[in-house]
Amino acid sequence: xxxxxxxxxxxxxxxxxxxxxxxxxxxxxxxxxxxxxxxxxxxxxxxxxxxxxxxxxxxxxxxxxxxxxxxxxxxxxxxxxxxxxxxxxxxxxxxxxxxxxxxxxxxxxxxxxxxxxxxxxxxxxxxxxxxxxxxxxxxxxxxxxxxxxxxxxxxxxxxxxxxxxxxxxxxxxxxxxxxxxxxxxxxxxxxxxxxxxxxxxxxxxxxxxxxxxxxxxxxxxxxxxxxxxxxxxxxxxxxxxxxxxxxxxxxxxxxxxxxxxxxxxxxxxxxxxxxxxxxxxxxxxxxxxxxxxxxxxxxxxxxxxxxxxxxxxxxxxxxxxxxxxxxxxx
Length: 330
Fold this sequence. Notes:
This protein is 41% helix and 20% strand.
């Protein structure tokens, strides 16, 4: 009886870890025959777990949607990851999630063994959220229902219709969603835009209203880059800004990367002691300040208009320093 109960727990954990399983795969993981597996599936159903089965050669099992949430079975690393994620979410950028995340975190910590509580307590004790006014740009808040709907569509490979603002107003975009990417300030959706016939990066906080009901399934396309986060960073840097800039810094890429947000632009190595920043802005003054405050020698490759702005800024700064010295302020 104990062996059967332990096997049922293992079976439930497997069904929760992946969406679809063949009977052969499950039986192999559990070390039992297909007949025993079918009996165990029936026992889970008797206990109230909705296990769906599809017949045929390509058929298998998946954990269905029930009236109540079944208990989740997590290994040590998964439990720690969930607890840390919940702690982060209590000060995150998803609107209305803080209190819910705190309740879930409290429940999880009550059930954790002491060895895991110590690991998580160390993280909590040494982590401070930078959320006070005046410390930087505020995070753009997103609707958690919208975020979960987009994540489900990515997972299930379902097309979606989104209302998204553009230069010509709000339009309906039919997309094949592939990945969600987030920075400390924003969430982005990487999707294939069917009307444009190309990849697009959508700011989730700009999507208007809930997406339409999930559409037809699609076959996943090869992603536009192996590193999707780097692709989003490049998409942000090359957004429809008025000015597109390429700046050659006389410093190793690793040093410049340490002072550059991933959402601010894309860095490209130009030898062991130099790199090129691809970025953009609607203001040449902002570009001049951003580049000048990096703390590295640099050369403007594009746009040429930035050179004049830098020269004028340099002159103002120099005159300001000379005036301060002349008046005895040192």
